[in-house]
């Protein structure tokens, strides 16, 4: 986890006192999309809104047209409540999600 937290372009870490209680990371192509492969909260800290806040902060940091997430069916409702499509598990933002037509 430490290597992931030190190399991912987008990272949010939640702490309680001196302990890490949750984290989220996103990887990106830097142009069109980002993907959140990990959003973890320690079991003894779940149900307190920590995961929601980690996801919110990651989405604020990512200034790209589309963001997708990894997660099984147990996380689908959580991410749908955060604005992700239930079908694609993706958020599309702004008109920039369409491919450029001017050669870029």
Lay out the secondary structure.
Blueprint: H1 2-7, E1 10-16, E2 19-28, E3 33-41, H2 50-61, E4 66-69, H3 73-81, E5 90-92
Parallel strand pairs: 3-4
Antiparallel strand pairs: 1-2, 2-3, 4-5
Q: Quick one: biggest sheet?
A: 5 strands, mixed
Report Rg.
15 Å
Helix count, DSSP H or I runs of 4 or more residues: 3
Order of strands, main sheet, comes to 1-2-3-4-5
Oligomer: single chain
Fraction of residues in helices?
A: 25-40%
Q: For the terminal residues, how far apart are their CA atoms?
A: 36 Å
Computed structural class:
alpha+beta
SSE succession: HEEEHEHE
Please report the total strand number as a whole number.
5
Low-confidence stretches: 96-104
Task: Report the principal-axis shape.
Answer: globular
Strand proportion? 25-35%
Mean pLDDT: 87
């Amino acid at each position: 986890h430490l290597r992931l937290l030190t190399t991912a372009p987008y990272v949010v870490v939640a702490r309680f006192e001196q302990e890490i209680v949750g984290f989220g990371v996103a990887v990106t192509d830097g142009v069109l999309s980002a993907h959140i492969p990990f959003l973890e909260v320690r079991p003894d800290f779940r149900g307190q809104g920590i995961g929601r806040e980690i996801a919110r902060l990651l989405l604020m940091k990512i200034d790209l047209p589309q963001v997708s997430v990894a997660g099984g069916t147990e996380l689908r409702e959580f991410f749908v409540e955060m604005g992700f499509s239930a079908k694609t598990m993706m958020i599309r933002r702004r008109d920039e999600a369409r491919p450029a037509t001017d050669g870029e």
